[in-house]
Amino acid sequence: MKNTINDLNNVLFEQLERLQDDEAMKDDAAFEKEITRSKAITNIAAQIIQNGNLSLRACQYVAEYGADARKPVLEMTDG
Q1: Which pTM does this prediction carry?
Q2: Where are the domains positioned within the chain?
């Protein structure tokens, strides 16, 4: 995995396919395991998306206010 948005989409679609596999989901234990796994994956995916949105907003801020506007932000993050 290269850790891109496309990779994240692939993981989400693979999980969706697993949940739609009626043969694999016949067993209640397997079904519960996949539901738990799905919840964990979606929680992590949501966090990744939030981080991406934060990065995008930071880029938009710099584009709007200029590179000098980054200095106070970097100072707050020890960057």
Answers
A1: 0.70
A2: 5-76
